[in-house]
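Limitations
The structure tokens in this dataset are predictions for the assembled complex, not deposited experimental models. Users should treat interface geometry with appropriate caution, especially where small molecules or nucleic acid strands are included. An illustrative entry is reproduced here so readers can see what is and is not provided.
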Amino acid sequence: MGEFVVRGGRRLAGAVRINGAKNAALPIMAASLLSKRPVIVRDVPEIRDVSVMVEVLRALGVKVEREGSTVVIDAALIKECRVPDALMQEMRASVFVMGPLLARLGRTEIVHPGGCAIGDRPIDLHLKGFEALGAEVRDELQGTVVLANRLVGAEIHLAFPSVGATENLIMAAALAEGETRIRNAAMEPEVVDLAQFLSRMGVTVRGAGTPEIRVVGCPELGAADHTVIPDRIETATFALAVASAGGAVRLLNCVPDHLPGLWQQLRDLGVEVKCEGDQVAITAAHAYAPHSVTVNTGPYPGFATDIQAQFMAFLLKVPGIHLVSERVFENRLGHVTEFRRLGAHIIADQRLAVVYGGQHLYGASVSAKDLRAGAALVVAGLQIEGSTRIAHREIIERGYHDLDGRLRSLGADIISA
Ligand code: UD1
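Predicted assembly:
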């Protein structure tokens, strides 16, 4: 177990390149199982979650080569239909292999998936969708078993626009007979990227990025060469780090349109944001005028739940009473307890936080409870002049490659210990 030690109060300056999106790379790597031909995936972030996905694919008997941010996957032969329990428990995104395995082998098995501690995170919507495509779901002692002699296109209405369920069902539908319509589908850019990857392999996917997606199954998929979209959550994390510390930083390789709402919210508070092509220039003062901010997370294009914690960390600096409402996950305010250790005044229940911004904060020892909560503690630490020690750095490194090194290159005082 390692920690990050942040000594804040230093302005950030320079430029930083945003990596490929974790949440696009993981389902795309899983989707490679659908083709017997090799696929190349580029700009895959060099993070722990990707290493786990590589281990998952290898455990299934698939050949995977990884060099830097390029991954080559050859799933001509798949030897297993069950993800080893330890890997499934280590990373919830392992659930993405279910759709492709079901489609390729007619069988997939898992124990209950692990992942971040942010609520129950069931997979009932994934399973109901598989059933709609003709699969049988069995709850057995060793976990959940899903079986299908053949998958047939169907109409599926998702009770909630779950990102993972939408992606798993698009993947299962890719090898199904006929057309599948997914209604109330997730519209996240990562869903669109997966659809683009599948299109490159020969699947017809229409409507990705809208609430209704149509997939026309294809008996056999081809090879593909795909570059993953830039990580919008990493983009937001760096932008909020600058807003928190103050300074002038240019974010390179991003898609500003993938963060609807965020830029305007920052501008309203006095942060200068210039979006130019695939770059965003952020200039932030050291102090903020009083404001009261309301944030409600929601499915895309709503405010991303994955940046709620980092945004709250930034709001600690803005004088005023702020309301943060988490509407996607039922238990995603774990960072509030840690912020309080830094002197923050926040009243919260499981889903709603009232944040009294502009209080004096001080350095203390805190702990990364989940990936984004951990990143939020770094964002908070950058505005505190004392020393903030963040335990469980490895949880942050599941989703960010070299976060400390990249912040140091911008002038931050952060070390890993
Ligand atoms: C993905 C992202 C995660 C992000 C989340 C919401 C990846 C690898 N992870 O997670 O970073 O925070 O989208 O933007 O892409 N739900 C059910 N039943 C299901 C599935 C989901 O009730 O079968 C509920 C969940 O408990 C949660 C909500 O739906 O409350 C959203 O979950 P979902 O969109 O599925 O998130 P993930 O795909 O797990």
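Some entries come with short summary sentences. For this one: The domain at 22-227 is CATH 3.65.10.10 (UDP-n-acetylglucosamine1-carboxyvinyl-transferase; Chain).
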